[in-house]
Design a protein that fits this description.
With about 400 residues, the protein is α/β, with parallel strands linked by helices. It has 11 helices and 20 strands. Strands 7, 10, 11, 12, 13, 14, 15, 16, 17 and 20 form a 10-stranded mixed β-sheet that branches. A 6-stranded parallel β-sheet has the order 3-2-1-4-5-6, with helices on both faces. A two-stranded antiparallel sheet has the order 8-9. The protein is globular and about 60 Å long.
């Protein structure tokens, strides 16, 4: 749904100044350059800490607020889109408050930590008539959308199996950048920070997106088996091995880590009854069909982060009839995440004998020994760590998510 259609530049407010807010700022600045938007205000809740940014915005005539609620009241009738690149545990409350105050929202991924929060965001959007788009920028990427179109057109047949792999590297500073990084609960609220609900959330969402043969729709997980681990000294997980079965009958194997030794992936293999596609987030997508033919979807190398904002603006102005990642479409990803926790939490520590901490200049990195080979095997066979006989893996049970509506685990 959308608010009243209009023409001309869309007025945007950015909430935040650090971390991923910098990416949102870059995208907003591009929209201004392209004539799509005006950058009218920003919320900086710690003005003394970010005095230089406050001064710069003030010099440019961009109004600076120190209080979110004050901005919501003051900018009614002027600002049309609020960008929310905030901490995960605040996504629901800030998005709902904005929609109830009359604004449209672009909230950074993930939508929230729990399915009940996502449901509350969906309800707020439906009740107010204002949209909430989630920053899953892959849904604005040409290879992702083109592959989805091929799937919806039946070119790959029924989607039977999807395998995802990613090995990423993170140092100690990554988990020291804010108080909620690597945490499951912060200030009494769920955050469930980890690769699955933060850095690599896109790629579980992609799998659920491609699993469905309906355009602009994601498949629903009916049961989930999660193995969650940490090698870094955090309570949450930095390594996830998750199996998902969907309502459409697709088997998804998702194996990722932030405790790797080299940056590889994300890679995804989508298997159908008529062909198989190999997707790489920085390359072309190759499709081999069972009749012997093949096809390449060329990556256009465009920055999909910009297209997320273009999409929201075009939708608001009535130039597009769909959002690429509306809040309702993202619910299955959060269900899969919550199901993985219900199955496999709390995360298990990878025993120190299988972990190496390494100094690289002035940074300290933590990696799991042999993780690259393990991920390769899991990706090739679409299996989890236990099935791949990882010596530190632990067996978990399937968790039924077919009617799942509330996450309420005691995670401290």
């Amino acid at each position: 749904m959308s608010s009243d259609k209009r023409t001309g530049p869309v007025s945007i407010c950015l909430v935040g100044v650090s971390n991923f807010a910098r990416s949102h700022r870059t995208s907003i600045e591009r929209m201004v350059e392209e004539g799509f938007a005006t950058f009218d205000c920003v919320v900086i809740r710690s003005p003394q800490k970010y005095a230089d940014a406050v001064a710069e915005y003030a010099e440019r005539g961009i109004k600076v607020y120190n209080d979110y609620e004050e901005m919501l009241e003051a900018e009614q009738g002027r600002v049309e889109l609020i960008a929310l690149p905030l901490s995960i545990q605040t996504h629901a409350e800030t998005s709902i408050a904005a929609m109830q105050a009359g604004y449209n929202v672009l909230v950074e991924k993930p939508p929230a930590a729990t399915v009940q929060d996502v449901d509350a965001m969906i309800a707020a959007s439906e009740a107010t008539g204002h949209f909430c788009e989630v920053g899953f920028q892959n849904q604005s990427k040409n290879t992702v959308r083109s592959l989805k179109r091929h799937i919806c057109d039946g070119k790959l047949g029924e989607i039977t199996r999807i395998s995802v792999m990613s090995e990423w590297v993170r140092d100690d500073d990554y988990y020291a950048r804010n108080k909620w990084a690597g945490q499951m609960v912060i200030d009494g609220r769920y955050v469930l920070d980890g690769p699955t609900n933060n850095a690599l959330a896109h790629y579980l969402f992609n799998a659920l997106y491609w699993s469905s043969q309906t355009w602009n729709h994601t498949d629903t997980p009916v049961r989930v088996k999660g193995e969650l681990y940490h090698a870094h000294q955090i309570p949450g997980e930095d390594t996830s091995s998750i199996l998902v079965e969907t309502s459409g009958g697709t088997q998804i194997a998702y194996n990722v880590t932030l405790a790797g030794w080299e940056t590889r992936g994300p890679l995804t293999r989508v298997e159908g009854t008529k062909g198989t596609a190999w997707w790489d987030h920085v390359g072309d997508t190759q499709i081999n069909y069972k009749d012997g033919s093949s096809e390449t979807i060329a990556w256009d190398k465009e920055r999909e982060h910009f297209e997320v904002f273009r999409n929201a603006i075009r939708y608001l102005r009535g130039e597009s009839d769909e959002l690429h990642a509306p809040i309702a479409m993202t619910r299955p990803m959060t269900v899969a995440l919550n199901g993985a926790y219900e199955s496999g939490a709390p995360p298990h520590e990878v025993p120190p004998t299988y972990v190496t901490r390494e100094d690289r200049g002035d940074k300290v990195f933590t990696g799991i020994n042999g993780i690259g080979e393990l991920l390769d095997r899991c990706y090739a066979d679409a299996i989890n760590f236990t099935e791949a006989d990882a010596p530190w893996a632990y067996e978990t049970d399937w968790f039924d998510t077919s009617r799942y509506s509330e996450f309420k685990m005691d995670l401290g």
